[in-house]
Amino acid sequence: MEKLKNYIHGEWIQGSGNGIPLYNAVTGEQVAISDTEGLNFEQALDFGRTIGYKNLSSMTFYDRGEMLKKVALYLLERKKKYYDLSYKTGATHVDSWVDIEGGFGTFFTYSGLAKRMLPNTPFWVDGDTQKISANGTFLGTHILTPSEGVSVQINAYNFPVWGMLEKLSTSLLAGVPSIVKPSPFGSYLTNAVFQDMIESGILPEGAVQLVCGEPGNILDYIQDGDSVLFTGSATTGRKLKSLPSIAGNAVRFNMEADSLNCSILGLDAKPGTPEFDLFIKEVRNEMTTKAGQKCTAIRRIIVPENLIGDVQNALSKALDQTKIGNPLSRETRMGSLVGKQQYDEVVRKVNLLKAETELVYDGQHELVDANYENGAFMSPKLFLNDKPFEKNISHDIEAFGPVSTLMPYKDAEEAAALAKRGKGSLVGSIVSHDDQFVAETSWKMASQHGRIFVLNRDSAKESTGHGSPLPTLMHGGPGRAGGGEEMGGLGGLHFFLQKTAIQGSPDILTAITKIYQQGAEKKYSDKHPFQKYFEEVEVGDSLETAGRTVTDADIVNFSNVSWDHFYAHTDATSLTGTIFDKTVAHGYFILSAAAGLFVSGKKGPVIANYGLENCSFFKPVYAGDTITVYLTAKEKINRGVKGRNIPSGVVKWLVEVVNQRDEIVCVATILTLVAKQSPFIDLNLKNIQKILNGLTESTQPNWGKMSPQQMIEHLEHGVLVSLGEPEADKCFTPEEQLEKWQDSLYNHRKMPKDFPAPFLKEDEKLLDLKHKNLEVAKISFMDNLKRFSIYYKENPQAEHMNFVFGKLNKEMWELMHKKHFTHHFEQFGLI
CB neighbours of 288 closer than 8 A, spacing ≥ 6? Predict the structure, then answer.
């Protein structure tokens, strides 16, 4: 039987012991062996702290976000084999989708957050700058940097993929190397996904390591700066937290433990209401999804005392319709537990629950294409606790399977009190259409819950469900739930980051943070800042504008244009007792006038105004005052661009408006989208002619078999096709992929060197030469390129077919030619 290999200090290594046999949860057949015997854990941790930390922490947050996306795309292409393995853990297709593609989705989400909101630097400035001196020559702020250590991540058996990826999403994005330690059960699935992550070659050396099997003494080697993340039982978690290596060192410890989550049916949600039906469906789903093996599953069903019978009957009928059996069968809606060992543990807990509460539903015991002897199957079990304030076992014992307990309540006060008797839960839900009931119950139970999910007819269609943690929201809970926090958007990175206060002069803080601080030196040049591409803009680039004297006519005209007739701008007789001496210019007029002073009228790389932040008005501006503007590049934010958008970044500009007395009257931050420099040549006729002058009959290609004349005639043919001479009669790209191919014209990725022309048969010549020689071909090419320019000025709406990209308009043809010309000019070493 194959042993799962471990991946430590950059090598795949088998354990040297007998290991733990791993079985198919459906058939009982052995699948693999996990073994960590003989592994050098001390060396593994050291490898992460040194090689892994150096490689990851030197990357920028933006680049690490791009890395997550690439890994997720790589894994997504290989998902079928993961599903095949997931079925062996007892998971249905839906269960597997949540685990596998839910895990990939977490990587995608964090990649998107990074590319929208994190800097293109290895550190992250946190919060605003604090002015800590009277004249502003001494400032303070905070930066976040990757914690200098390794993260050991101990995962539970119920989600072999998502459990690994949701932790890695934040640790890798934060720049901290990780050692993944999955539960042995189901680790053959974790192992398969991890192998492909390494095979992809996307992750830097030392970024991740894998230990498949028992953890051995790995935690004995934990030291200052390291972190441990644990998902599992509270008992085990508390033991780990108290280990001398963890408790005695500055080791960050995060625990997500077992949790007696509840769902409350509102007093208003009687049979026949949408909320009653939603409640039954939600509880059934949470009892049967992953066969109840979810840390967020509903264990306590809190129902108005007069509706206990209705809920019991409706839920029993719903559970009766849930077919249990082989996950590969289309009929199956609930699979098995992950193994016999877990089955025995759930049975033990069920027997404890029977001691105090009544088992009122034990499910249908027929299986689809499976049997109880070989597989770890269990029917759903529903208990009734008729006195939930006296019988505490329902609030103390969690059976980690398809097991839940009904309990009655009288009013909102009792519902909240019962919810809190779980002594700390990951999630509690309320199903009700009564806003007052929801509000009163939710804030009272919030102190003992990490998340409160409210469901009713208004949100049901788009709701993600009680049991689904989301990357953008915190996953964790107080008390029994472990007191930890995972994910929660960018907040989930803070666990892995060191926060450091930075103090110094404006110039020093600008140098450290790469964000311009007011009072720092400005850089002036003859080139207008709005004429610079994103790569050319430097933090501190500045412009001092001419002055503009505000007139009474300006104030009156702005009132009329904006319809803002606030008395301070229009009625000089109403100013008694105000802060104004006379009618004052509108704040937004000052901002608009400032923009009029600092913008560049000439077309340039600035694409659009992207937003406005932190606008403040400090002093009134009256008719007769003269304003001048200082525009300074404050911060650059790299930006991922999709679809048919020009590759660009966001530049934040500090706008300081001063009056004739050099008093600051307005400060704002404006955001602009600024185009990135294209790596492709412009369709400038003089420039292209100059490039072609360097092409001779003896010029050899760097790749491919084209001759110089074939290349020029090939480009000319492309230009003629873009004029409809001849009109291409066919596009070779399938219709469903066409939009993606057309979108690719807008990005800055170069054409592949080995792309075969789809319209040519194998070994077919590219084109028969039609010109006498290379020089004649060059002249003809340039003539037709000039015609292209004129044609689309005269016919701006024209569209013509391309063999690969389909029907293209003027803009798309220009982008196509820029890429195509660049590709072939580089082929012959001309640029």
Answer: 319, 322, 333, 334, 380, 402
* Ranges of residues in the chain whose predicted pLDDT is under 70: 755-767
Which residue of the set 295, 666, 716, 814 is catalytic? 295
**In this structure, are residues 638 and 62 in contact, taking their beta carbons and an 8 Å threshold?**
yes
Helix (H) or strand (E) holding 287: helix 274-288
Could you give the CA distance from residue 283 to residue 787 in angstroms, rounded to a whole number? 69
| CA–CA gap between residue 254 and residue 483 (Å, rounded) | 8
| Catalytic residue status for 305 | no
Q: Yes or no: say if 434 and 267 are a contact pair by the CB < 8 Å rule.
A: yes
Strand partners, 500: 143
Residue pLDDT, tens place only, 107-142: 999 999 998 888 889 999 998 899 989 888 999 999
Residue range 527-561, pLDDT digits in tens: 999 999 999 999 999 999 999 999 999 999 999 99
Give every CB contact of residue 196 below 8 A, 6+ residues apart in sequence: 74, 75, 78
256 an active-site residue? Answer: yes
| Polymer length in residues for the chain | 831
Bridge partners, residue 671, by sequence: 611, 652
d(C-alpha 129, C-alpha 117), whole Å: 18
167: helix, strand or coil: helix
Q: Are 639 and 535 in contact (CB under 8 A)?
A: no
pLDDT at 439: 95
Query: Which long-range CB contacts under 8 A does 131-135 form with residues at least 24 apart?
Result: 132/503
State residue 764's pLDDT score.
47
Token couple for 32: 């693999």
Catalytic residue among 101, 166, 214, 256: 256
